[in-house]
Amino acid sequence: MKKIKGALALLAVLSLAGCGAGSPSSGTAESSPEGTSGSGAATALEKVEVGVIPIVDVAPIYLGVKEGIFEKEGLDVKLTLAQGGAAIVPAIMSEQMDFGFSNVTSMIVARSKSLPLKMVAPGGSSTGDTKADFASVMTKPDSGIKEIKDLVGKKVAVNTLNNISDSTISEAVKLAGGDYKKVHFVEMGFPDMTAQLAAGNVDAMAAVEPFVTISEADGNVPIFSNYAEPVDDLTVAVYFTSDDYIKKNPETAAKFARAMTESQKFADENPEKAKAVLPDYTSLEPEVIEKLKMPRYYTEVNEASIEKIAEISLDRGLIEKIPDLTALLPSK
């Protein structure tokens, strides 16, 4: 238990929202090795830098680098850890990074504000199982909250306000027949949520792995997964770049998309190998990793789920109008 709780302090930079505050870390990066030709001579690889967040969602890209999938496409990948998309998006726009990782709500909001960003490959997706997903709304066993509509009038911790967690939770409450406007969301970091729940400062918490597993170890119980419902087969996060980068580097963007898609497929087919790379970029202990519920790593962005998230974002006032989703979604 001490090791599990110790992970909280070591993982303070975790952020799923993809729009939390933070700047890129200068100390944590990984590159693929130089390739070799059939004769054994070194083959120059094209260097690309990718901004990622230290969460389970990005395991496939670390695995793809380790397995040589990006090298096969001629890419030398540098992975730079950031606290959230607030650091990654401007790094992409200013060409300090080539590709980045973020959740889909942040992408929709950014595109609605005329930021020329474009998805190039999927990231993590919901398992679709409301009782066994990598994201879960948790509460204390004696809270009296047994189902979704019981969240009405309650305080719910989310890591970022006006983003994917609170909008999907409020939509689930609405569909369950509750008054979603009476759910009170409180912003705090994932590592702080369990303690605030124990102290009674919030009634429930919107957690993602590893904090679902850590919270369960403290005796808390899941209510439902806001990623598994109210949106079917939700693509939660994606890899993206700018329109300008794609225009200037179409072949590189295509290579990255192919390698990322293959890495997603490999990780989804080899979940234990995906778990095995987590110590490369997180401080999780083995007993925590063993119990984690991993995302699904699909090879395509579920366009219908993006459309639904855009509709929810519009209804909640996150955006003034739905942006051109064709321009945002990966090219076919």
TrEMBL record:
Pfam families, alphabetized: NMT1 (PF09084)
Cellular localization per UniProt: Periplasm
Source superkingdom: Bacteria
Signal sequence, start to end: 1-21
GO cellular component annotations of the record: periplasmic space
Domain SsuA/THI5-like: 57-274
Keywords associated with the record: Signal
Major location category of this protein: periplasm
SUPFAM superfamilies xref list: Periplasmic binding protein-like II
Family: Belongs to the bacterial solute-binding protein SsuA/TauA family.
UniProt protein name: Nitrate/sulfonate/bicarbonate ABC transporter substrate-binding protein
Record organism: Paeniglutamicibacter gangotriensis Lz1y
